[in-house]
Design goal:
The protein is mainly beta. It is built from one helix and ten strands.
Length: 151
Amino acid sequence: MRTRRVSLLALGCASLMIAAACGDKASGRENTSSTKTIDGGTNTISVTQIDLGRAINADLTIRDQATTFRPSDVVYASIETKGAAPATVGVRWTYNNDQVVEKGDRDIHPIGPTRTEFHISKPDGLPVGRYRLEVTLNGASAGTKEFEIKQ
């Protein structure tokens, strides 16, 4: 009797893994997310949230979310990724749609949801105007955030 339960459990788990790999054909949905193969397994990673603010917590979440800043503020970006694949998270900060203020990237090796922090500031203050933060994941655009510097 015990062997039968274990066999049914194993069969059920195998069925779920096959269904996940093939997508849900019955409902017309297929698994179309981008994947990375690591150590023989398949893992995905994606940017799930981009937050901006004036202060950041120890866990790299934004303490004081904002879209309007003063020239003297440090503008923090907290980018959340979900997944377990090595990746490069990049940012490009632009001013008035064309002038690059700063850009950078960080290699991450998450084993689940994680956050990456970037920030900009200038000792003499950021110029007043409209800004845009573009986030990339492995070189592909993963989202943007607009913000403004006001007196």
